[in-house]
Every structure is written in C-alpha cells, then in structure tokens.
Amino acid sequence: MKISHNLGVLLVTALLGGCFSAPVVSQQNTRSESVAVQQKQAKVYSATVSRVSDGDSLQVIDQHGRKRKLRFAYIDAPELQQAHGEASRKALQDVLGKQVEVTVFGRDRYRRELVKVSVAGHDLSLRQLQQGHAWHYQSYAKRDQAADDYAAYAAAQQQAKQNRIGLWRAREAQAPWAFRQQSRQGETVN
User: Is 66 a catalytic residue?
Assistant: First the structure.
C-alpha cells in the first residue's frame, strides 16, 4: 500500500509539474520580441542635416536647435582613408539641408545616436547598400534589427554585390571593420 501511495504522489507531482513548467520559447521568438520592444522604445524626431561626416554618419540640428551626431545603425561604410570612402560620403551629400526623420535605437561608444534616417520616407541606410556604398553590418543586425529591415538590407547588399555596383566593383573590397583592425595593428607596430 505504501508503494502505491508513493507512486500516486509521484504521478500527481509529475502531472502538476507539467502544468506549471515554463513554456519552451524558441530563440527566434525571443529575438523578435526583443526587437519589437526596442522598436517601441525607439525615439523618433525631425531634424535638418547640417553635415555629412562619412558614408554612415551625419550631423543634424533637431527641431529645438540642438546639434546631434548620428551613426547609421546596421550598416558600415568605408572609412574616408579607405578605398571608396570619399565616394560613400559623397553619396549622402544630396541630403545636406534636407528635413529628415530620425529613429534612435541607442548610442555607440562615441556617444553618437545609433539611428535609422529617412528622407521623404526613404531609408538612407538602405539606399547606401543599394548603391554599393556600405556593408550590411550583420554581426549587429542579426541580433537587433527588425526582421523585415534585415531582409531588405541583406537583399540590397547582395544585389549591389552581384551587379558590381559601387565598392563592389573592386575585386576584393575590404570591409571597414577589417580596415580599422589592420590600421590599429599598423599603429602598434610603429
């Protein structure tokens, strides 16, 4: 009788334990939920472009007259000293003086706002990728970028690469992160 009582307790415990256990959540669901929360918390404001620093950085003046330094999220353009760096910066010159919508996702280590910038509803980062003036910064994007934007950015880069547009004309274009690492290693040797 004691054995059947112990079995009954084990059976009830197992059944109840299954009712109260945490649901299994896929990593993709967690990422999607995290990105959705981040997008809801994103700050959006209007500004006027006052300076193009390089192919993925701008300075703007917001509606309160404050200067803000921006870094495009999820892309990385060639450094100015790098092949195609000047061409990448020049590709953004047409937005000087224009009104833009800025969506802020956070800040980088240099205190620049990490942003998505749109002119008349058109995403400037996506345009840079389409014209072959930047890389999709997938190491950050796969973790934080909205799935539809991630797909659009990846497709734009692939299309530019396939059609040998912009920086992709070079046989072996060097990614900016590799260029920066190589530059830092060169500085330590000297």
Answer: no
